[in-house]
Design a protein that fits this description.
With about 140 residues, the protein is α/β, with parallel strands linked by helices. It has helices spanning about 10-20, 35-40, 50-65, 65-85, 105-125; strands at about 1-5, 25, 45-50, 90-95, 130-135, 135-140. It comes from Halalkalibacter alkaliphilus.
Length: about 140
């Protein structure tokens, strides 16, 4: 499992396309549900998942408990890792770095920012490789 993380429009997708040839994309930005990952993942391809901050915001709307959501995501990452090993194909998580900007005024927006940061830490822990992307360049940090 690989984690690609960086700011908005920093070149994360470009880096993934340079690293991987055949990809199955699951994107919250296109309205995809995170629960459809197994249906979207085509045989002999890399599963690329992006839009985590949107999926987490949806979960906060329905659950409101960030600790429960984080535990669920930790378990989900472990399940993804196991499936990656079974299929012998890679998974790439693209995450948005949103912790370096202005602190949101709205409590709900702060919760999304905080939860996204915690979940990114959990993803980095599980990932075999982590790349930070800025200005179209990437640096392997794990």
């Amino acid at each position: 499992m690989q984690l690609i993380i960086g700011g908005a429009f920093s070149g994360k997708r470009k880096i993934v396309r340079e690293m991987k040839t055949k990809c199955s994309w699951l994107s919250a930005y296109d309205g995809d549900s995170v629960s459809k990952w197994d249906v979207r993942w085509e045989k002999d391809s890399t599963l690329v998942m992006e839009g985590w901050e949107n999926w987490l915001a949806e979960k906060l709307i329905s659950k409101k408990n960030s600790n429960d959501i984080r535990r669920n995501m930790q378990s989900f990452f472990q399940s993804l890792k196991e499936e990656e090993q079974k299929r012998d194909n890679d998974i790439v998580l693209i995450m948005l770095e949103i912790g370096r900007g202005i602190v949101p005024l709205q409590k709900d927006e702060r919760m999304v920012r905080d939860l996204t940061g915690w979940v990114a830490q959990d993803a980095a822990e599980v990932a075999d490789e982590v790349y930070y992307v800025w200005n179209g360049l990437s640096k392997k940090i794990k």
